[in-house]
Write a structure and sequence with these properties.
51% of the residues lie in helices and 16% in strands. It is an alpha+beta fold. A five-stranded mixed sheet has the order 6-8-9-11-10, with helices on one face.
């Protein structure tokens, strides 16, 4: 590839690489034949070149191999500090502008990302492309998370402000005053939970190594989570049935495991039927792993939604209130600890969440 040789010439300094991929090309070749895919590729290549010409500098380079669904741009034009230069050569801004132009011209969905490399004459371009696409997916996921979080923060803030302003205006009888303060307090607690969830997620990558080495008592986390969910269960008339938890140690600290279980049990209470049942059990599969199951008697989760509900801001078809953060946080914490979570049909008729952890 021409870009491979060009990058090798600039390997003595850090070079930003923009990666654009069109997943539709592979799908089209499979379903409609290579001729149709090549026509789309030709149109996309022209759109990529035109977008790059409007966005990049004369000294930057672009490349695309015929038959490939990947389009590349290297910001090789010399600048004193590319990260602080104008928006036209900032990697994120340049990539966003190129992608917007390509999507407008082709009407196709685009995967994109960017990375940097330098200091090695033997440039591993496929690895760099992979890093860029992974980074792009992570940045889009985080953007979706913070967008969802920002939306969710506005609601309790507006509620708290509204009730406090009413109280400050005066003329409120004591029972109403007490009720308004209670609502404002409850909303402040919900706001606190949202903020804590945001910090948990932002710190997980930094704490990945430490999380892999921690351990906690399963029974302690089990008891703490059941107690923490008792008030919500009582409010909905839900019976929480629990199996005795063994005195096993698992490869995640008790506080984080408690948070995982609280999210899942509260989720089951919220999505189960009013006056219904939630069952929390433990499965000892072998000497190395232990699984906790949380069952509800709600409508269940369709197979098409079972991956999406664990994404930032992702929600299923339920009309129950929620922000799409709790399950994303659960999966992230478990994955960092070497565990996993999945969802399937429950014997109670609703959903079963299964948390599997390594034993210590």
């Amino acid at each position: 590839m021409q870009l491979q040789r060009l990058l090798a010439k600039h390997s003595d300094r850090v070079t930003p690489l923009l990666v654009v991929r069109l997943p539709a090309l592979e799908r089209t070749a499979w379903r409609e034949g290579r001729h149709k895919a090549r026509a789309i590729e030709k149109h996309a290549a022209a759109a990529f070149a035109a977008a790059a010409a409007r966005t990049l500098r004369a000294g930057d380079a672009i490349a695309h191999d015929s038959g490939s669904d990947v389009f590349l741009a290297a910001l090789t034009a010399p600048v004193r500090d590319w990260a602080e230069a104008s928006a036209g050569i900032d990697p994120r801004s340049a990539l966003a502008r190129i992608c917007a132009n390509m999507e407008s011209a082709t009407g196709l969905d685009i995967d994109s990302g960017w990375t940097t490399f330098g200091g090695d004459p033997a440039v591993d371009l496929p690895a760099a492309i992979g890093r860029g696409l992974i980074r792009g997916a992570q940045e889009r996921e985080r953007y979706a998370f913070f967008s969802a979080l920002g939306h969710e923060l506005r609601t309790p803030l507006a509620s708290i402000r509204g009730y406090l302003e009413t109280l400050l205006d005066g003329g409120i009888d004591e029972p109403t005053r007490t009720r308004f303060l209670s609502i404002a307090h409850r909303e402040s607690l919900r706001l606190s939970r949202l903020v804590e969830g945001m910090f948990e997620i932002s710190l997980l990558d930094l704490q990945a190594t430490r999380l892999a080495r921690t351990s906690g008592a399963l029974d302690a986390a089990f008891d703490a989570a059941i107690d923490a969910c008792a008030a919500n269960a009582s409010a909905r008339g839900t019976s929480v049935l629990r199996a005795p938890a063994p005195a096993a140690r698992v490869a995640i600290d008790a506080d984080r495991l408690t948070l995982v279980l609280i999210n899942l049990i509260d989720n089951a209470i919220k999505h189960g039927g009013i006056g219904g049942t939630v069952a929390v059990g433990v499965e000892l599969g072998d000497a190395d792993r232990v699984c906790v199951t949380i069952d509800d008697d709600g409508p269940g989760i369709p197979a098409s939604d079972r991956d999406r509900i664990f994404a930032f801001g992702g929600r299923g078809q339920s009309t129950a209130p929620g922000n799409g953060i709790g399950l994303a946080l659960v999966r992230l914490m478990l994955e960092r600890a070497g565990g996993c979570v999945d969802v399937e049909d429950s014997p109670l008729g609703g959903a079963r969440f299964r948390v599997c952890l390594r034993r210590n």
